[in-house]
Amino acid sequence: MSVARDGEEEADRIASAAEALAVLLDAGIAPPSAWRHVGRASPHPLIRRVVALVEAGAPVEDALAREAGGSGRDDGVSALAAAWIVAVAAGSPLSPALRGAAAALRDRAEVAREVEVALSGPRSTARLVGWLPLVGIGFSLLLGVDVLGVLTGTPVGVGLLGVGAMLAVAGRLWTAALVRRATPRGGIPGLEEELIVIGVGSGLSIERARRLVAEASDRLGLDTADGAAVDEALELAERAGAPAAELLTSAAQQRRRSARASGRRAAADLGVRLLLPLALCVLPSFLLLGVAPMVLGLISSTVEGF
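^ thats the sequence. predicted structure below, dont judge the formating
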């Protein structure tokens, strides 16, 4: 299972826990009790560790911050922790904040799935092409040509083996680097806007809401800063007299759409960029390790026959 697919499942599990918490809180259940109920039903180890800390007497926001800081990867618990911390600090209802975090996580998982599907073709092509040099050697052996003897028993063959192996390794490394660069990384697009909306929805000023979001992000190590997009939405709200919360929500949705389009574009570009290592490394390696030794072997056997 790929790292990206693991991240999708993590985000979906955290989103499910957040939605369950929102339902229990709407039913009037106290936050610690709601966490205990969700912890018994959730298979996610991070959720269970948060519940264990809450049952030991830790405030929910402290337990979430501790697990978000110790998870070691962006698995969604940081987004849930940020929404909870901002809502508690702003005095905002927890249920809408949790549902907003769940929606953001599910949207991020959906974007990751779409990009994963788009990348599957280029990745498969890269893996298949990377085996061409070994396929060439195997094909030569099937034809009865001692290519291994040529590659290891003659000066020319040793030279072909060295250069061909270096090109093969370079091609695989280059291909892997291109795939990594095309794979989307980072946090949840639009999370900063969603968190500010939580604060504004409780009656806080924009400045105070932004400070709360910045403090929560620093505490959790979240990379949510996209001040340009937030400033643009707030400037439009002030100039037009429109509700800032709605414009920020729209900006968050637009950032997610942009992230989805960027992922698809990166996947499409990858199919073209993979031609470079194919043409400059993999195919020359195939010729040096598979074709050239076979030709040399045939020539040497012909000469010996005379």
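The chain has a mean pLDDT of 78.
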